[in-house]
Design a protein that fits this description.
heterodimer; A: mainly alpha; 4 helices; elongated; B: mainly alpha; Rna Polymerase Sigma Factor, Chain: A; Arc Repressor Mutant, subunit A; 9 helices
């Protein structure tokens, strides 16, 4: 049997899987991240935080990390939740991107 | 795919393919040759047969969640039913574009199945033969016959689908059966 013929079938199966299982999930994740970032940007003056972080980074990496931890724990609880949410969803998004690539390689070999 | 996965029942493979489409490889490997042979027996053109097989696999994946294994309903026969329906629809389309000049090869019975799909052939040859005769009939008669005998639909459901009265349906079925008999004996 021609491998191109099989690849054509599997490609279509992969597309269906992508649209059914991955796209809705990833879209929801992106939407939530975008919404969280919007709130984050409203509440936090990121430029100032980065400026201070740069000053802290000048002394040592340890100081830089300490500054980030200090900034995180001094922030309002809502901001802390938003930061955790963004990090968690960002990780899930990366995991899903990896899954999409891995599945593509496994399916269409 | 390892040997262990190849021993899994088809419906389990299909279920796993919903989560990880690479499992679908197993079903394609198992059925593509037999499907292609069957489709080629109907449309006689390699490209058309490949289109039908491709469409069949896509439908199997798309509607696979509707398949429930019950006594007497095997995945194989369900998959073959999809293949035959797809072939039938494809053939009807071909006939329309080719101006009713193309006919099915009536010798579907003579399809030589390999030992592997001998059981499938016995399940499907009768249906294939019926399909072959049906495709030679006028569309309105062919459709009611197909819905009633091949898709096991009730009178009521057919009437709803076709938007016709039950007496009309009975008359069409009667005429369709007579024509079916005539075409079958001519062959």
């Amino acid at each position: 049997m021609s491998p191109i013929f099989k690849t054509k079938i599997l490609w279509r199966i992969y597309v269906i899987w992508f649209f059914r299982r991955v796209l809705p999930l990833v879209s929801a994740q992106i939407l939530i991240i975008a919404f969280a970032l919007k709130i984050f940007a409203k509440k936090v003056f990121l430029g100032k935080v980065l400026e201070n972080a740069a000053v802290a980074a000048d002394s040592s990496y340890w100081e830089f990390l300490k500054y980030l931890a200090y900034a995180f724990f001094s922030a309002h609880i809502l901001i802390q939740i938003i930061i955790i949410l963004i990090l968690a969803l960002g990780t899930l998004l990366l995991r899903d991107a990896g899954r999409v690539i891995r599945t593509y390689i496994n399916t269409i070999r | 795919m390892d040997e262990l996965n190849k021993q899994l029942p088809d419906e389990v493979v299909l279920k796993r393919a919903f989560k990880d489409p690479s499992y679908f490889n197993l079903l394609v490997d198992k059925y593509e040759a037999a499907f292609l042979r069957k489709a080629l027996g109907i449309v006689k053109k390699q490209e058309e047969a490949e289109d039908i097989v491709q469409e069949t696999f896509v439908k199997i994946y798309k509607y696979g969640h509707k398949f429930k294994k019950e006594a007497g309903i095997e995945f194989k026969s369900w998959a073959y039913k999809i293949l035959m329906n797809t072939s039938f629809t494809h053939y009807q389309d071909l006939k329309k574009t080719a101006g009713n000049t193309e006919y099915l090869d009536p010798l579907l019975y003579e399809d030589k199945p390999s030992e592997k799909d001998l059981d499938l052939a016995t399940i499907n040859d009768a249906k294939a033969a019926v399909q072959a005769v049906i495709t030679k009939m006028p569309e309105h008669l062919a459709k009611v016959l197909k819905l009633y005998y091949l898709e096991d639909m009730s009178y009521d459901s057919i009437c709803k689908v076709e938007k016709i009265a039950i007496t009309t349906l009975k008359m069409r079925l009667f005429r369709a059966k007579r024509l079916f008999q005539k075409i079958s004996t001519e062959n």
